[in-house]
Predict the 3D structure of the following.
Amino acid sequence: MNDIAPKMELDSSVYKTLLESTKAIPWKIDWATMQFTYIGPQIEGVLGWPQDSWVSVNDWASRIHPDEREAIVNFCVAQSQAGADHEADYRALAQNGDYVWIRDVVHVARKPDGSVDALIGFMFDINERKKTEAKLIDLQKELETLSFKDGLTGVANRRMFDSVMKLEWANAKNDKRPISVIMLDIDYFKQYNDHYGHIQGDHCLRQVAQTLSSAASRSRDFFGRFGGEEFILILPETNELSALTVAERCRKLIADEQIVHEKSGIGQRLTISLGVHTVIPCYGDEPLQFIEEVDRRLYRAKQKGRDCIASDT
């Protein structure tokens, strides 16, 4: 026995050295008193608080960000009472006033009778990981935004139109409310491009898109580029008369811009033609057929001489 004791002491010393040489922060809390019986010195390097300032679970709880404190404490207590090992991520207050992301990995130690004896765990500094995750999330949001934005004009693109149309069509069908769509096309745009060049043509598209972005102002109204020189508006819960009012506003907005178009077949200024269609979707109706009908009305406006609106009436 005498030979074993020194070896046990040596092992304990070695274990402590190993624990305190890792980046993980070891700790132990006595369940009966809710007091820290140990916390690694690494805590000072991560949060700045000295070892001896970690006396009880109250010191731990009080240093959790207020927005997360109640949820984290309740979760950890419930898991510990149930005897379940667990982990939790939270922002911990550093001595300098900053917050550092911490991951706590907790093991519940039990007595022979099954009751909780102590909580033993490791704290990990995951601040840089969380910053990286946040940057990746922001980047993903940016990429998603870009994927729904037309690269030339900056307005919503066809992909975004398809998504919004699907949603608003379902809403209109469920609520038995009208939905209107306006499709418009720049008159004689090929001649514009041929005469002024594609760079000026791109500038023209951007100017038209910017001008028409203000035509429909309700929060759910949608405006985007459908393709080429075509643009499209979705007007939820809008009857035909109101849709025609918006279409005429679009036509007038472009007329007011007084964009020179010397090769236009109907004057010296840039104009647009518009097709308008309204429907209350019924069972079996599909948005594709609806959009095709809007397109036919746009074609009819072209046949009528351009710079005009064709609708159901």
